UniProtKB/TrEMBL annotation:
Record domain Acyl-CoA dehydrogenase C-terminal: where: 239-371
Organism this protein belongs to: Nocardiopsis ansamitocini
Domain Acyl-CoA dehydrogenase/oxidase N-terminal: from-to ranges: 25-106
Keywords: Oxidoreductase
GO molecular function, one term: flavin adenine dinucleotide binding
PANTHER family the UniProt entry points to: ACYL-COA DEHYDROGENASE (PTHR43884), ISOVALERYL-COA DEHYDROGENASE, MITOCHONDRIAL-RELATED (PTHR43884:SF12)
Lineage, top ranks: Bacteria, Bacillati, Actinomycetota, Actinomycetes, Streptosporangiales
Protein name (Swiss-Prot/TrEMBL): Acyl-CoA dehydrogenase
Amino acid sequence: MESTEAPSRGELLRRATELVPLLSKHANWSEDNRRLSEEVINALTEQGLLKMRVPKRYGGYESDAGTVVEVLAELARGDGSTSWTAGVWAISTWAIAMFPDEVQDEVFSTPDVRICGILSPSAVAVPTDGGVVLNGKWSFNTGAQQSHWNTNAAVRATPDGGYEPVMVALPVSDLEIVDDWYTSGLRGSGSVTTIAKDVFVPEQRVLSMGPVLQGQSLSPANAESQVFSSPFLPIACTTVGATVLGLAKAAKDAFFERLPERKITYTSYEKQSEAPITHLQVAEATVKIDEAEFHARRAASLVDAKTGAGEEWTIEERARIRLDLGAACQRAKEAVDILNTASGGSSIYSSVPIQRIERDVQTLNLHAIMHPNTNMELYGRVLCGLEPNTLYI
């Protein structure tokens, strides 16, 4: 066992900033090859940015939500797919900390282990002696080809003929990988389909989903850790919201980088920067980026405040995390749309980053847990005194 003194938030953010040029350089390669380059993964590993959710006793940092959000948002300034993949690895690493200590010992015995995960229960686990037999498939399994372990949701058959949701942990090598990630956005994330065919999973690597969603770990070693005491969805939502925020900032960076050399064709404006419409566009986009950042930071601050105080979460607070995620997604997309529209016809070339940013942010806004409409409806429902119509809060 190795206990590590975690770097400060500022230090981790500095490391992320240093990687932005490298991520930008490899972004087109990742798109073309539909996965992250080994150079990018090695850089993330060497800088310790994949340790933020690893328990300290395994050499990790147990970083708080605010740190994770800032680091992932910064990575997204270089490449959305890299930020997204690193975020999924962070969430799934956190999920492993819910399992018994013997499972964590097994998983974290792999140096620099990478863990992917899916929360949609699209497989069936049938009980057998000592565990379950797993059959099913999971689409959108981000980073699976470049991961060692997988935390996946499934339903377990019960003696009364029903099913209960569970989370299973299994090596990626136990799964068949379907190379089907041909998409318009987040193309570098390698979010392929994985299939389980009669895979045996021992009982200690099968958890009832209810306690996982509540952040009720079966790990005595993690019992005193604030990071691993939160409900699951607030952890997951704050993490993935960082990527859309970073993409919006990347769009602003990309727009202003090209602005000095641009004119507005078929008008009298030889400098786009002198056109009033441009002034309106960049101001409106900046306001929306600030609003996205407000929601992303508010969510992270609430997670850190609740875990720091050891307080129980109210239903309204948990639904508000989903609201903040949806609002951050919506504002970020609106900002990117404005800046993309203002970038002109030459921005459609693949060498111009803003077209990739536009596709990536649109893809994230369509994600089931991130969709603004879904999250606003959920929060409004709770405000109106109704019970949430989902387990995922």
